[in-house]
Design goal:
Helices cover 28% and strands 30% of the residues. By secondary structure, it is α/β, with parallel strands linked by helices. The chain is built from nine helices and twelve strands.
């Protein structure tokens, strides 16, 4: 919400906290067939995209999320070639995926085309790879697309979704993960944005339990800062189809052939370290 002093505030009611940015003006507002999309020009974070009242990304800090949702999983898979991104309408994750020259195809499936069109207008740096011949942008139901995906047709699945409410709720279910498991080739990996470990531990526990029920064999959660999201601390959970999560290719990651703003081999290694409370919270889920 925007108050009379031009502060946009997202309130996390359950956590009893809020995050605010001072706004210069509202640049865009529309009601798409699926959600309310707004863009604000802020004083210190550049442009800010807000969907249904929730902060999605800003010019200043979106690299944290996009890099950590893409590079760790791609450097963990031994030979990623075929990638699907479910959600990700702002196209920042797609851009990071296509920095990897070994990627042969990357299909992005987002239900709301308007998110992409708004990103093209107000965050053009995120959409600069949309014309890459390896990229395919589809605007349809990602749950249905995954259900119909050919068996063993993907090496990596990236679930770049909003919170598990509304259109994204079905992306956090055993049935959806079972379809992902079938679509992944042997050795395949899935990674999903998994909310704040401080505020949303039950969601993370659910991802572990539901992917295990769907047949996945191993998990690893990465932690990273995310200034505009509730608590300022976020996570991505990596899931391995049929084997322990492999060690990441640290030598390749330490010799990046493309620029990053946050991701390095050292960051990757550090992001895998699990806090004590996190280990305890997951112990029952993992049968420890």
């Amino acid at each position: 919400m925007l108050d009379e002093n031009n502060w946009f505030t997202e309130v996390a009611e359950a956590a009893g906290s809020a995050f605010s940015l001072r706004v210069k003006c509202r640049l865009h507002h529309e009601e798409s067939p699926f959600q309310t999309i707004e863009v604000y020009e802020t004083e210190t974070f550049g442009n800010l995209m807000v969907i249904d009242g929730f902060t999605m990304l800003s010019t200043r800090e979106n690299f944290l999320y996009h890099e950590m949702l893409s590079h760790p999983v791609l450097f963990t898979h031994p030979a990623p070639r075929r990638v699907a991104i479910i959600g990700g309408g702002d196209c920042g994750t797609l851009r990071e995926v296509l920095r990897h020259s070994e990627i042969e195809s990357a299909v992005q499936i987002d239900i709301d085309e308007r998110v992409t069109r708004v990103a093209e207008q107000f965050f053009p740096e995120l959409t600069e790879s949309n014309a890459d011949p390896r990229a395919t942008l589809l605007f349809e139901d990602g749950i249905r697309w995954m259900r119909e995906a050919p068996e063993h047709s993907l090496d990596v699945i990236i679930i770049d979704s909003t919170d598990p409410v509304g259109p994204a709720e079905g992306l956090f279910t055993t049935a959806f993960y079972r379809d992902c498991h079938r679509a992944l080739a042997p050795g395949g990996l899935l990674v999903q944005q998994s909310e704040s470990p401080l505020y949303h531990m039950e969601i993370i526990r659910g991802i572990y339990a539901d992917t295990q029920a769907a047949g996945f064999q191993d998990h690893a959660t990465l932690f990273f800062p995310q200034a505009i999201y509730p608590s300022g601390w976020w996570s991505a959970t990596l899931v391995s189809r049929d084997q322990p999560v492999p060690d990441f290719r640290a030598t390749a990651a330490s010799k990046l052939p493309f620029p990053t703003q946050y991701y390095t081999a050292e960051i990757h290694r550090a992001a895998l370290a699990q806090p004590a409370f996190f280990k305890r919270a997951l112990a029952s889920t993992q049968g420890e």
